[in-house]
Structure prediction request, 210 residues.
Amino acid sequence: MKASVSLAAVFLALGPAIVSAQAVNGVLPFLPTAVPRALADHDGLVERTDSQGCNADNVLRALRNAKQSQEASAFCSTFIQPTTTTTSTNTIPKTDVIVVQTTETILTTATVTTAIATNTVLCPPPASTTTKCNIRAYGFSQFLISQEPGVSSAACEQKCLADPNCKSYQTQLDGASFCNLFRVKTEGNVQIIDQDNFYFFDRECPDNRP
Prediction:
């Protein structure tokens, strides 16, 4: 019996699955080498199980010949020699060991390092004619970067100068002392008020105290 798999048969078997795959913007959802490899693995293979199976060639028949195998054994025996392992034992005479104890004095020195805390203060950039300082106003949430209570006016200024996205900041002089950072400048982006102690400063303001 002969069993063979043709390229056409495999393609017909896999064809519906390939056609049914939906392309997304002209791209199919599988690797380009998946189908060709599956077809190539079985194309043209024939299984032989009867008397017409594989036959021995001249090399295999020569190896099976008893006369030639004896000649090969005689030839190989000239290169294959038995191995002899020799083990020798050396006797070391006993030696007396004398231990001498010595006392060594080591002088050590200690180094004391004193850490001095330093504070880095950021300075505002130069002010321009459009810089707004000490503006009593409310800000808008869509421009808000962050909001933090319990922060002094000076500390709020430092927070704004440390954030490159901060263009202005708002401080509360009483109550919870909120510090609010904004991504836009003061002019045109705040609502002027006459109550509550909330004050706006652009990041270029040289003095943040009302």
User: Anything to note?
Assistant: DSSP finds five helices and eight strands in the chain. The longest helix spans residues 7-20. Strands lie at 2-4, 46-48, 135-138, 144-148, 168-172, 179-182, 191-192, 198-202. The longest strand covers residues 144-148.
